[in-house]
Amino acid sequence: MRTHCRTKLRPLLFCAVLLCAQGCANRLRYRQFLDSAAADVADLPGDLLQDSKYVLSQRDNLLILSLAGGASIAMNQGADKDIQKSFDKHEIFHNFTDRTLKTFGHPGFHFAAVGAWYLAAIDNNDTLNHDRAWTTIRALSLTTLATFSLKTIRNNDTPVDNSRAWPSGHTSSSFALASVLDEFYGPRVGLPAYALASLVGIRMMDQGDHWASDVVFGAALGWVIGHSVAAKKELQFAGFKVLPCTITAHGPVLGVNFVKRF
Fold this sequence. Notes:
The protein is mainly alpha-helical. Helices cover 76% and strands 6% of the residues. The chain starts with a helix and ends with a strand.
């Protein structure tokens, strides 16, 4: 009888030891998870400050933003209303497509998706994806801060009379995410991401949520910040280097060149 009881107890003891070991491992894993996330969050203010300094220190960045700002001012003189009237007459997106683009373009959706990427990378001890996800969070955070600061300063109305129209937050966040993905994975991922970001911008005009000038500057802002934070090198778009262009044949004209060596 005593031998029979011992035989029964052994599997139970073995299971108890396994459960205890699993619990200790989970606790250690959870602790490491919290320590890693806490360290990143603690560094975030300093990282954003450094990223801001880098973005503003690049002459090409300032040129692109100046051109986009000038375009916004010019469009605001009358082109915005003409473009909006065209969208009012020929609405493009309806029902499911409209709701889908609005959701996919929302900054909150971007943070949630990248946050899941970040948490999965920590859980799997994946250093590469941890760094990439955290860099993306930094780019989105800086884009959001810049966008809402400009919205507060400008505080103009949208076509449907909502406040803080310029620049478009959906567009800036979408282009920031697309720029980071383009930098990390190249045109194969970057081009579809840019295409989706562009559809988000068109949708914001199509439904009267933003003027065209809001979308133009939002796209430029997100592109500049996303690329700069992810790469910290000269601006590129889908593998093409972006360079300033000045033409003086019939008066001074500013623009950009897209250059690629084959």
